[in-house]
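User: For my dataset I need records formatted as: sequence, then C-alpha cells, nothing else. Please produce one.
Assistant:
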Amino acid sequence: MEYVYAAMLLHKAGQKVDEASVKKVLEAAGVKADEARIKALVASLEGVNIDEAIEKAATVAAPAAAAPAASSEAPKAEKKEEKKEEKAEENAAGLGALFG
C-alpha cells in the first residue's frame, strides 16, 4: 500500500511518477524499497489518468457506504441494486490489485 501512497503523493505534488521518484519517497518514509514492486507499479500506471481513477473509485465507494442503511427499507429492489454495486466494487477492486 505504501507504494501506491508514494505514487499518489508524487502525483498530487505535480511530480512525475517514475521509478527513481517513487524510490526516493519510500526511502524518505523509512520503507525499504523493492525494485520489482516499484517497476510493476510504474508500469501499471503508465497511460492511466490517476485523477480519473481516483474519481471513479470515490463514486463507487460512496454508494456502497450508503447501502446498509437503505437495505432494510426495500429488500427486493435493494437486492438488485446491491448486485450492481457489488459488481461495480469488484471492478474497482481490480484497479486496487494493480497496486499490490
